[in-house]
Amino acid sequence: MRILSGVQSSGKLHIGNYYGAIREFVRLQEEGEALYFIANLHALNSVRDGKLARRLTLETAAAFIALGVDPQRAALFRQSDVPEIPELNWVLGTVVPMADLENAHSYKDKLARGASPDFGLFAYPVLMAADILLYDTDVVPVGRDQKQHLELTRDWAGKFNRQYGGQVFKLPKERIRDETAVIPGRDGQKMSKTYNNTIDLFGTDKEVEKQVKSVLTDSTPPEAAKPVDQQPLYALLKLALSESDFAVIDARWRAAGGEPKSHGYGAFKQALLEAFHGTFDPARARYAELMADQAELERLLTAGAQKARAHAAPVMARVRLAVGL
Ligand code: TYM
User: Fold this and answer.
1) Average pLDDT of 293-305?
2) How far apart (Å, rounded) are the C-alpha atoms in residues 114 and 150?
3) Domain limits, CATH 3.40.50.620, in the chain
């Protein structure tokens, strides 16, 4: 089984990226041949400062490794180190209907929010399809926000195969876990940099505390039973705590007449903060070490790109033969 996924290097990674995607990357690297990459070409749509883009690329690489992606086991690489990507992006684009791109959620959402989109944003799903199709990928672990991109990828791969009369591309499947398909942000919407509602994996202790303390709650008094639906704090506790720790918190959450000190939202936020540190502090320390040796990160990424290009070569040869390049 060949597994592929990517994360944009467009800003700080948050716990939505971890629980929605990266945790699954780590599990899946044990089950097949995994390719994971830093989508630094996609990130150019939002990061328009070369120095910053370079730093964010390395930060994203360090985050992958710190969180458990093993560069010996998986191919970990930068999208921009694989020149076959822009080549396939072009070839694939010649069979992509404009209407598909006009109807893509990500593009329509940006339009609705008043952005005036550039070509890069419009064409973003084609580049993502090229990322996926280039390696004969079987499985793509992602959060639900990427589902439509996978559907488009299959549509275009099928169309290309029919057009060129053969099995040029393998049709990939998304892997989306129901429990972690949409991690809520501090305000209850999907956690996203764009909505400024994240809890950042590698923020300073102070920043993380501030973020956790600002998770939206309602005005239920501390001693009263709390509602569980549509409550980001409750959902985040369920994700971050072990099953047995969560059972204790859950009982308190639902109890009426509890001790205000241990049953108020403040206490639950403290529990979330402790779970965050318990889960991520080892990765946070490792991240700092990795960022202190950027030459080593560069070396790992270069080796990862070589592995990725070896997988890309036969697919690109089929594409060139099929279209007559
Ligand atoms: P990106 O960088 O926005 O997000 C990386 C991964 O994190 C998941 N994710 C979430 N999952 C659940 N709840 C959330 N709140 C949440 N926020 C983020 C995303 O679903 C994603 O899996 N277009 C992609 C990057 C990409 C890619 C690819 C992915 C480029 N080429 C090829 C897979 C295959 C993106 O912007 O993800």
Assistant:
1) 97
2) 26
3) 2-183+294-323
What's the CA-to-centroid distance between 43 and ligand 1, angstroms? Answer: 12
pLDDT of 165 higher than 90: no
CATH 1.10.240.10 residue spans of the chain: 205-287
Q: Using the atom order of ligand 1, give the atom closest to the CA of residue 145.
A: 20
With a pLDDT cut of 90, the percent of the chain lying above it is 93
**What residue owns the CA closest to ligand 1's atom 37?**
7
Cα 6 to ligand 1 centroid, rounded to whole Å: 7
CA of 97 to the centre of ligand 1 (A): 23
Is residue 41 very low, low, confident or very high in pLDDT (cuts 50, 70, 90)?
very high
> What number does the ligand 1 atom closest to the CA of 143 have?
20
pTM tops 0.90, yes or no: yes
Confidence band of 300 (pLDDT split at 50, 70, 90): very high
How far apart CA 8 and CA 303 sit, in angstroms, is: 20
Closest atom of ligand 1 relative to the 146 alpha carbon: 20
pLDDT, tens digit (0-9, with 9 covering 90-100), for 261-294: 899 999 999 999 999 999 999 999 999 999 999 9
CATH of domain 205-287: 1.10.240.10
Report CA(147)–ligand 1 centroid distance (Å): 10
Pocket of ligand 1 (CB under 6 A): 5-8, 16-17, 20-21, 39, 42, 128, 131-132, 140, 142-143, 145-146, 182-183, 190-192
Which residues form the catalytic set? 110, 190, 193
Burial zone of 95 (CB within 10 Å; 0-12 exposed, 13-18 middle, 19+ buried):
middle
Q: What does the pLDDT read at residue 167?
A: 92
Choosing among 3.20.20.10, 3.30.2350.10, 3.40.50.620, 3.40.50.2000, the CATH entry for 2-183+294-323 is: 3.40.50.620
